Structure formats: structure tokens, C-alpha cells
Amino acid sequence: MDADRVVVALDVGGTGMKCALVRPDGVAVRTERHPTDATRGPDAVVDTILDVAVGLADKARADGLTPVAVGIAVPGIVDEARGVAVWSANVGFRDVPLRDLAVSRLGLPTALGHDVRVGGLAEARLGAGRGAGHVLFVAIGTGIAAAHVVDGAAAVGAHGAAGEIGHIMVRPDGPRCGCGRPGCLEAVASAAAIGRRYAELAGETVGVVTTAEVAQRAAAGEPLAGRVWQEAVEALADGLATGQALFDVATIVLGGGLAQAGDRLFDPLRAALHERMTFHREPRLVAAALGDEAGCLGAALLALDALGVRDRQEKR
Ligand SMILES: [Zn+2]
């Protein structure tokens, strides 16, 4: 009976939802993707979330599996204790009681989590931070956000907003951040910010040269790309050094689009972080291992934790 149990897991993003049936040992037995189409408004997105979850639960039963819980990850500010999607810029949630809606629609215990925090949970327990105990997961894409995971649990914060490392001020005279302040880490060193900065200095339209191309041009010796890349690396190192001063982790796991630059990012970033360590112990700096499935797996872990089956999952 135990081997037949699965969790219905969904990771809801601004453009797409990654969905899966996940076994208690953290293995996904079925995966699906669906468009979010956030322009339809939050009510329509909620309907889609619930329809997809019901569909997955039905497929589990058809395959002889027993869905025992639902885990949903969403972006923005998430009140995990109340199960409420408090606020989200790219999906439009405003105080949506997603957990209760899922419970009444599916009749299964449901956990609601923050996409980056559960992604960090998955990387810390099943991915690149496995075995480290104290892990800082940093997702670098359009923005920058983090999850601080200690012994397999991600800190949520008093208001559901822990981990906003992207809004550490690193350059007081830097570009204005989406949050309204100047010089936030994500305004300087996110993948989006790197592309913008290069376009600005090169006198090109934003978006013509991708951030991956900036990395390639920097590696090929183009001075302007090299300068923009190094500026971003130095800012990231400042942000990570602040994170390390606060959390003293064993491992920093970098995920998101920028981490796919590989050694072009990790080699100079390790060196820059090393320079910033004084009495602090230098963390291991590694690339995420679970790719874009981390959020979905993490949503499943959160649901399993709520059921109290975490011990079994970690002893596999
Ligand atoms: Zn900011």
C-alpha cells in the first residue's frame, strides 16, 4: 500500500505550470506541463490549477496509485501557515486561499508553498545540496530570490517573505529595482539586468543580445561583454557574501537561467566570493541539479512533510 502512494504536485509560474505525481521517496512517476496564461486573471488561473490537480489525481487512481496529498508552489508572497497566496506580480494573486480551495475541490490534505523556497527544499534534500544540512539556494533569472534551508526545512519568515536576497542593496548608485529602490542585487546581477546593462552600454535595443550571449562574448574576449559580466559577478559575490554572513551555510546552490552559464559564471564567482571571506567559512558553491523540476518536487516534499512522512523520504 505504501509504495502506491503519490502526491499531486504543481509549480505555478507566470507562463507555465510544471505538474507531477511524486512518490514519497521524491521520484516523479508522471509529469505534465500546462500553460498558466496569467493574462486571463487570477480566478481563471485558480480554476486551471484545480482542474489540473483533479486531472492528475484521477490519472493516479487510473494507474492504481493512491493520491494522498496535494502540494502547490506559487510565486510572490505566500502565507504557508494559512495556505494563502498573498500577492504575486506575475500571476496576479491577491489573498487567494488556495489551500482551502484545493482541499474542498480534491478532498485531500494540501500544502501551499513559495516557488523558490520549495525549489530550495528540493535542491537541499534531493539535489545539489543533499547532505549539507545548511543550504542557501539562490535562483537567478528575471529576478533573484533565495531559500535558506536548515536540516531540510526552508525558513518562511514572519510574513511569508523570507529569502528576498535579490533586494539586498549592493550598489547604492545603481539602477533602480522593480521594488522601487536603487541598486538592489537583482537590478544589477539578474539575467535580465545583465542583458539590459549590455544593451545600454552597447547602444543596442534591449533583448537583441541575450544574457547567454553576453556570457559567450565575455568568454571570447569582447571587452564590453567582459566588463558587464564581471560587474554582475562582483555584485553577485557581494550579495552571496552577505548571505553567508547571515546564514553561515555549508553549500550555496545556484539555480535559474544564469546558473546555466556554467564555469563562465562559477569560476569568477568562486574567486570573487573567496576574496570577500574574512573570518567566515567559505561555502561550497555549486550548480542546481534538479533543473526546472525543483519547484514541483519541492511542492511534493512540502505536502509530504505536512503528512508527517518526511522521515521515510529521507531514509530511502
Ligand atoms: Zn529591489
Kindly describe this structure:
This protein is of the alpha/beta class and 316 residues long. The longest helix has 25 residues. The chain is built from ten helices and 13 strands. Helix content is 40%, strand content 23%. A hairpin with a 2-residue loop joins strand 10 and strand 11.
Order of strands in the sheet with the most strands?
3-2-1-4-8
Cα-atom Rg, whole angstroms? 20 Å
Order of helices and strands: EEEHEEEEHEHEEEHHHHEHEHH
End-to-end distance, in Å? 17 Å
* Share of residues in helices: 25-40%
Number of helices: 10
Main beta sheet, described? Answer: 5 strands, mixed
Shape: globular
How large a portion of the residues is in β-strands, by DSSP E? 15-25%
Small-molecule binders here are: zinc ion
Topology of helices and strands:
Layout: E1 5-12, E2 16-22, E3 28-35, H1 42-62, E4 66-74, E5 77-79, E6 84-87, E7 94-96, H2 98-106, E8 110-114, H3 115-126, E9 134-140, E10 144-150, E11 153-154, H4 185-189, H5 191-202, H6 211-219, H7 223-247, E12 251-255, H8 263-276, E13 284-287, H9 294-307, H10 310-314
Parallel strand pairs: 1-4, 4-8, 9-12, 12-13
Antiparallel strand pairs: 1-2, 2-3, 5-6, 6-7, 9-10, 10-11
The structure holds zinc ion (ZN).
Main traits of this protein?
alpha/beta; 5-stranded mixed β-sheet; 13 strands; binds zinc ion
Compose a concise summary of this entry.
By secondary structure, this protein is α/β, with parallel strands linked by helices. Helix content is 40%, strand content 23%.
